[in-house]
């Protein structure tokens, strides 16, 4: 169960340990510092000049907060077409905080918001096939592997096309 507190900037979501807050201009420095870590840029690519506020305006981004400190970012997008409606997510967590369940808690918190408050029944994520730690985190959060998307993502370091794993979490409403 999550606790949602709505503000004009968007909701604040409370998980078991994490708080997800809408990103403000004052968060940019912390998020840019975390993004610049080699373990993050490995999967997210080079840092854009206008990250996190202007580089991808169609997504909703939130800070992941633990004990008042920004430790990562989670984002989502939505497919509004009624016949294909779903949401997708992506996340990064401070590499110094990996292995502590922060990512899993943040994902569960956001997914519950997307399913309960935003009216989705399906949420997807598509990590690189060789990002074993991420896949394990998403499985702990309730996602299941759907299949491999071959040569679907250009690795920002090698510039080679690599495989991704399509993962989803589906919660269908009860049938009438």
Write the layout of secondary structure elements.
Layout: E1 3-7, E2 10-14, E3 19-22, H1 28-35, H2 38-44, E4 60-66, E5 69-79, E6 86-93, H3 102-117, E7 122-125, H4 132-140, E8 144-154, E9 161-170
Parallel strand pairs: 6-7
Antiparallel strand pairs: 1-2, 2-3, 3-4, 4-5, 5-6, 7-9, 8-9
| CATH level-two architecture | 3-Layer(aba) Sandwich
Percent of residues in β-strands: 35-45%
Helical region count? 4
- Using the alpha-carbon principal axes, give the shape: globular
- Rg over CA atoms: 16 Å
What order do the helices and strands follow?
EEEHHEEEHEHEE
Q: Which topology does CATH recognise?
A: Aminopeptidase
The averaged pLDDT comes out at 92
Quick recap:
This protein is α+β, with helices and mostly antiparallel strands and 176 residues long. It contains four helices and nine strands. It has helices at 28-35, 38-44, 102-117, 132-140, and strands spanning 3-7, 10-14, 19-22, 60-66, 69-79, 86-93, 122-125, 144-154, 161-170.
